Amino acid sequence: MRRHLCVLLLTASQFAAPARASAAELASSYARARERTAQLREAGRAIFSDPMFSASGRQSCASCHDPARRYNPPNARDVQTGGPALRDQGLRALPTLTYLDRVPPYDNHHYDSEDEADNSIDNGPTGGLTWDGRVDTGAQQAAIPLTSKFEMANTIAGVAAAARKAPHAPTLRAALGSTVLDDDEHAFAAVARALAAFEEDDAEFSPYTSKYDAVLTGRATLSAQEQRGLALFEDARKGNCAQCHLSRRGLDGTPPAFSDYGLIALAVPRNANIARNRDPAFFDLGACGPEREDKANQDEYCGLFRTPTLRNVALRSAFFHNGKFHDLREVVEFYVTRDITPERWYAKDANGKTVFYDDLPAPYHANINRDPPFAGQKPGARPALSKSEIDDIVVFMRTLSDGYLKDSPYRAERGPAVSALPHEQSAR
Questions:
Q1: Are residues 193 and 335 in the same domain?
Q2: Cβ atoms of 197 and 141 closer than 8 Å
Q3: Which of 16, 177, 197, 238 has the fewest CB atoms within 10 Å of its CB?
Q4: Distance of alpha carbon 54 from its chain centroid, rounded?
């Protein structure tokens, strides 16, 4: 399910043919639309790597979203730095920009299941871009870092000026009109639209070229350890990862996104390395603030962050919204021992007592997820996964990194959609 078709087809009125247009006129209109789409995408590709759109003149989108790492951060920092002098620390770890086309618009009550095609189930808060789901379109998302004080830290006027001076300015004008850069507001919007257009390039941002995609289309098989890892990943009594990170193709053959994009409270430990967390009264509460403002003071949304895709997760070096963890195996360990060995994960107070869920105030603890593998966890309990089983799951997640195949195998498929995994029988 694609969240939108393409920002580049702009609006229907721009390219709508007259009511009695001939076939030739229609073909010409669509050809021009495709041409403008390509032009806007070309401009977006150039802007993405152009540091002149930042206040410092030294930071581009690609500085933090490394193409070589499938648009994950290029380093192991908890959060990235930016600002006018590149000295201001961000609040959250940067997510990957891949597979954003699968994210639905934000909804408090999302009724949709790509896995089971059952629209009767209320999945609760779901969707939206960024960790807190506060925007819905690629252009809205692209606009955020351009002016964020701890990211590129520019202004609308500054971005507009950079667009006018850029070597790709003629391409922007060709795509959106000769006067699009004359006004600051329109020029800023054009830059954001161009970035969104680039990020909708399927081959670049939604390639589906992992080993797991090869397995799902009969082009490869999982190793014995990878097979065990998948089984544990899906088993509700073990990892139960697939409850949120959907691993099966939809009934219509849609490849799995490895996220249901729901907003969930996991009670990730507080990260003392984030500058704003030095203030003991400050808390990043996700959907209810501080970056998202429309749900401020709505307690049921506090502590909720959007579930990211696990595609390309093994290419990351910082995990969760605050970059607290730097090892994928440790992430899985946290899931299966959060409430079994809380002293390992959470800080201690002045008396040496472990502060459960130290990055979420007590009034919001009711929001914390208790589904498996958290269900039944208490000090002294046995974890749902052994050390070797954790290893197996991590090995399986490495099969989700793109680049195993040259091109998406789904484009070449013919015949009816397949809803079952090719290896399903052997996994049982």
A1: no
A2: no
A3: 16
A4: 23
Q: Which of 190, 205, 220 is the last residue of a domain?
A: 205
CA 118 to CA 120: how far, in whole Å? 6
At 120, is the pLDDT very low, low, confident or very high (cuts 50, 70, 90)? low
Domain shared by 322 and 367, yes or no:
yes
pLDDT digits (tens, 9 = 90+) for 54-93: 999 999 999 999 999 999 999 999 999 999 999 999 999 9
Q: How many domains does the chain have?
A: 2
- pTM confidence score: 0.89
How many angstroms separate the CA atoms of 26 and 15, rounded? Answer: 9
- The pLDDT of residue 18 is above 70: no
- In our burial notation (b when 16+ CB lie closer than 10 A, e otherwise), range 26-52 reads eeebeeebeebbebbbbbbbbbbebeb
Verify that 190 and 247 share a domain, yes or no: no
284-307 pLDDT, tens digit per residue, is 999 999 999 999 999 999 999 999
Whether the Cβ atoms of residue 83 and residue 55 lie closer than 8 Å to each other = yes
**Is 409 within 8 Å of 220 (Cβ atoms)?**
no
CA geometry: angle 276, 138, 72, nearest 5 deg: 55
Tell me how far apart the alpha carbons of residues 292 and 134 are, in angstroms, rounded to a whole number.
Answer: 6
CATH number at residue 347: 1.10.760.10
Task: Answer yes or no: do 183 and 317 share one domain.
Answer: no
Residue 1 in domain: no
- Asked whether residue 138 falls in the same domain as residue 246, the answer is no
Map residue 193 onto helix, strand or coil: helix
How many Å apart are CA 271 and CA 417, to the nearest integer?
Answer: 44
Asked whether residue 125 is assigned to any structural domain, the reply reads yes
120 and 153 in a single domain? The answer is yes
Report residue 238 as tokens: 């073990």
User: Does residue 257 share a domain with residue 201?
Assistant: no
Other Cβ atoms closer than 10 A to 239: 27
Q: Answer yes or no: do 274 and 388 share one domain.
A: yes
Region of 177 (left: φ > 0; alpha: ψ -120 to 50; beta: rest) is left
> Does 397 map to a domain?
yes
Q: Environment class of residue 326 by beta-carbon count within 10 Å: exposed (0-12), middle (13-18) or buried (19+)?
A: middle
Plot region of 273 (φ>0 → left; ψ -120 to 50 → alpha; else → beta): alpha
Q: Are 364 and 302 in contact (CB under 8 A)?
A: yes
In this structure, is residue 52 part of a structural domain?
Answer: yes
**Containing domain of residue 24, as a range?**
7-205
Residues making up the chain, counted from first to last = 428
Where a domain ends, among 205, 223, 244? 205
